[in-house]
Structures are given as structure tokens and as C-alpha cells.
Amino acid sequence: MDADEQANQPNSTATPRPAPPSSPSTFRFFDLPTELRLKVYRHLLPHGQTIEIGPQTIRAYYSPMGTPHCRLRLRLTQRPPELQNARNILGTCRRFRDEASDVLYGENVFRFELSRDRMGTLGIGNNIKWVPAAVLRRIWKCHIVVREELHRPHTFRRVRGWLKSAVDRLGDAHALRELRIDIQTGDFVLATPMFLSIQNLRLQTFEPWTKAEMAKGYQFVLEPLAELRGISDVQITGHVDEGLAKTVGEIMGKDIGWDHLVRRSYKQHKVLKKKKHAARRTPVMVSTKKFWQPELDWGAVGEN
Questions:
Q1: Which of 50, 201, 215, 257 could bridge to 185 as Cys pair (CB 3.0-4.6 Å)?
Q2: pLDDT tens track, the chain, 304 positions
Q3: Using CA atoms, how far apart are residues 40 and 37, in angstroms rounded to an integer?
Q4: DSSP letters of 74-105?
Q5: Rounded CA gap, 113 and 33, in Å?
Q6: What residue numbers bound the domain in which 273 lies?
Q7: How many domains is the chain built from?
């Protein structure tokens, strides 16, 4: 065998080349069965819980600025930590949010307490506004608790305005299936002696009225909620007549678009009022309606 033939023969003693490594397999979360994905969602997100949004989220903190009597201030933690963390998780991708949102908003109860802070210094405002409207419309189960001094005109009107704002933000595109409403009229009393107060901050506690018939005189604060429609399960408790609670619940269960609510008319009388910077008082027609009286004619609603 000449040199050219030897060069063309394969070298039997040479080490064979290793096969190229295979590409690692990619794990795709959305390839998992739906049942497994739901288990992962429930592991990451709160479920089967009551998410509280109310005065309990207030925290006191010390501010070195300002005068000595106002250094101890209140910070509002606008959303509970579990809700804020869950929303951050849902923001990872759109498909994750679409699939897992029902676990957060459908398997938890969102409880809003319309009341004042326990320190008795600042009004916390409408805490339903702490939740974005887009999130509010995804909630399936909602509890609204009103514990306030509804016998005071400004408090009654403020709470009524809060409920009206909540109805406007929910609109007709809400996902509510279960709504619980608890109305309590009472007084805030000091829970600690005056000498234990710290820089004008006094711990208060709410005591509902024991005379239910007297407390029910302010039940029409819930009238704005009668604008909601399409809620199959409604329960109204507290200082509310059973007849009114049943009627309002039935109205909220009507189909969207039902509108047979009739405004109640009140007599008017003439009074003299002086406008700002005016030289004299001018006659003005004023309604005789008291702040606690209904704006809707519930007798006419019952006939419809």
C-alpha cells in the first residue's frame, strides 16, 4: 500500500468525537393541566380569606417635623399587604393575571368598614376608594359595614355620599355575586381615661344603640345601594327594618337596566337667605325634608 492509499484510510486508533450535547428541555408553566395551575395560584395568592379594608389599616408614626403637639401622626396603609402583594404577582404577565384573578377576587371576601379611625383625630375618608375601580369591578364577594354616628347630619350625608360613590365606581360591569350590608348606628366613646391620652390622640370605641327602633330611623342611608343591579345574593342586617332590607335586596337582584325607582316629593317653603357679599337677604325655596328621611318612594317601589 503506497503512501496515498494510507492517507485515505480512516485512523482506527483515533478517539471518536463526543456527540453534541442535546439542548435542555424548557419547562412551560402554562403546559401544566388547569388543575395543577390552580393549585399553584392558590399557593401564591390568598384564598378563602376575608381581606379587611378599613380603620384597622391605620398605623401611628412619629414625625420629627412640626410643632410638639402634632408630631405623633397617623399613616394610612391604603391597602392590606396581602392585597398589594397579590396584585404584584398578578402583574407578572397578562395570561397569569387572566387565569389567577378569579382566585384572588372570587375566592376571598372583601370587607369594607365605613367608620372613623380609632384614634379619634382624623377622618379616614372613603376607604372603598383605596381599591382601584378596575379591581373593585372584579370582586365577587363584598361585605360593607357601616358603624357611625348616623344621627349626626354631616355624618349621615358623608356616609351616604360614600355609598353613592361606590355604586358609581362599580357601574353595570361589576362581578358581584354576594353582597352583605350591615348598618349600625351608635356613638363613639372614649376607651381610655382622659389622662392617658397622648398628644390629643384618644382611643375610641364604637357602641351601637341598644334601642333598635330609634336607630332604625337612620336606615335610609343605604338608599344609594339600591342603584346596583344583577346581584343574586344580598343580605342586609343591623339597624334596618326587615321590610326595607328585603325590598332593597330584591331590587339589587333585578336585571341590569331595571329602573322603576320613584323619587319622593316633599313640600317646600320660602325662607330668607343672604348670599355671600349680598347686601340683603333674598327669598329661597327650601325643601321640608329632614336629612334622615328617604329620597325614594318605597311604597311605589313595592307596587312595581
A1: 215
A2: 555 555 555 555 556 666 666 666 777 888 889 899 899 989 888 889 888 887 665 554 445 555 444 444 444 444 566 677 788 888 888 888 888 899 999 999 999 988 876 655 445 567 788 788 988 999 999 999 999 999 999 999 999 999 999 999 999 999 999 999 999 999 988 776 665 555 555 677 889 999 999 999 999 999 999 999 999 999 999 999 999 999 999 999 999 889 888 999 999 888 888 777 777 888 888 888 999 999 999 887 655 5
A3: 5
A4: EEE--S-HHHHHHHHHHTT-HHHHHHHHHHHH
A5: 39
A6: 260-304
A7: 2
User: If 0-12 CB within 10 Å is exposed, 13-18 middle and 19+ buried, where does residue 17 land?
Assistant: exposed
Q: What is the pTM of this model?
A: 0.78
Sign of the dihedral defined by the CA atoms of residues 31, 37, 43, 45, in that order: positive
Same-domain pairing of 113 and 215: yes
